[in-house]
Design a protein that fits this description.
6 helices; mainly alpha; 84% helix; AhpD-like
Length: 134
């Protein structure tokens, strides 16, 4: 039986960290597998990300580092780059992180991360322009 408290805690943390993009990602997953979407919310966000051992900035940057290093997971990387910025990482810090990752994850992975970051920065700038024009 699902634990509604864990799920609700996970939804709140998902929204805090990833905002609208995270909610859209869960909806997309749910269209294919409602069970998988539930596991993502309940376990990743309701259990793991609600632990007290790390702050959200550290959790998001750990996700970005893992995704850049892994490669081939650009949709998740872009979502977590948005998340990193939502919890306080700046564009310059993310760029510096990609430079650092060139040493440990390789130049190709770091460049792919940098390109994903460029796209995220542009998306956020465009959204900010639209918001300020209203």
């Amino acid at each position: 039986m699902p634990d509604d408290a864990r799920y609700q805690r996970g939804r709140a943390k998902l929204k805090q960290m990833l905002g609208e993009l995270g909610e859209q990602a869960v909806e997309n997953i749910a269209r294919i597998s409602p069970d998988m979407a539930h596991y993502v919310v309940e376990f990743i966000f309701g259990d793991i990300h609600c632990r007290s051992g790390l702050d959200l900035k550290t959790r998001e940057i750990a996700a970005v580092v893992a995704l850049v290093s892994r490669g081939g997971v650009e949709p998740q990387l872009r979502t977590h780059l948005h998340g990193a910025m939502n919890v306080g990482w700046s564009e310059q810090e993310i760029i510096e992180l990609m430079i650092e990752l060139a040493v440990y994850a390789g130049f190709s992975a770091a460049l792919n991360g940098l390109y994903a970051a460029r796209d995220v920065f542009a998306e956020r700038a465009a959204k900010a322009r639209i918001s300020s024009a209203k």
